[in-house]
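so my prof wants the structure for this chain in the tokens format not the other one, which i didnt know existed until like an hour ago. anyway here's the sequence
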Amino acid sequence: MRENGAALWRGRLKAGLAALTLLASVAPCAIAAETKGFVVSWFNVAEYADPQNRDCPHGVNDGPEIYYRRELKQSGLPQAQIDKYINEFLDLSKAQQTIPVAQMRGRINGKPADVYADPTSMPDPHLKLVEGPIGYGFDLDGKDKKGDFTDPETGEKGVDNQLYRVIGCINELKTHTLTDRPPLQLNYWNVLYEQMPAWLVEISNIEDPQNSPDVTVTITRAIEAPTKDSGGNVETNLTFTSDPNPRWHNVVHGRIKDGVLTTDHFDMNMLGDPFWIQEFHFKEARMRINIAPDGSLKAILGGYHPWFPFYWQYGSEGWGVDATNNVDLPGFYYALKNAADAYPDPKTGQNTMISSAWLMEAVPAFITHAADQRAELTPAMSSEGGARGK
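here's what i got, hopefully its the right format
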């Protein structure tokens, strides 16, 4: 009996040691998987400034001194009045007289019409579009068509980025070097950035920063707004709480190969700002993400998006953008509408969405989740609520 007991004990000991060995071999993998959080510091159309100037071979689009002369002449305004207007249109002391002239340069049934509210009230001025072969993004439709771009980072052909094609030769919307920001978009971003709740990116289940086949990317909105340091840079390593509203909660599977994270296709919805784009609604989106040694994130987001909000971002500002930022707004409207390349309206056949690629930059941040916080507070809140109810 004693021998049988000893044998049984030895057997159990061996089984226990085997289990510990197995646990030791599995534990490092579980511990190695990590989650990284980021707060978005820049988000705008991904533009390629071609060093060989192939993007805009005919130069950038005209300024208001030229297109106002042309379009006011089309509207039937006498030449003397046009000359007087051009000499005075930036004189803010005469704004009450000059602004309506440009605003009402459209014609409907022979009568003056507001070109910002109805851009089709004047003929299409045919803006200059990007003609170069290089552009950021993805082959969204699975076709390598004539005029499609080639991505400068990956070499992927058939890249669809019609939004870049439209804005890339408008001086104030154009990236002039590979590192600068388009002037008008930068102005908008600087105004809204510390007012708008932050956008957050969370990448989880990272087993190896170079190769992880099964990661999850979450893009959501924070409750708090971001802040900048004294140098104007976005503060790093701050803590943000994700907004629990599921409408702005986007989750997609991805994989990391050779240090580059790519995602599956997904639809992305995100609340913006009335001063910028009210809401973003991407269809068939995908992302390519790189995390730099300093912990910062740089990504390209590609997908189809309704084209009209891009016009209304500036069209709602009217003369202030049209005259002082070199954006011929009726021409911008026509160019977007003509370049739209997906999701045709079943009644009219007009495409409602335009292919696009966006540059997203972000810095490290800590992300907490409102649901987790509520769970932690539940006992105390329940107790307090019970006391108040007595």
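also thought this was worth mentioning. The chain has one domain: 34-61+127-371.
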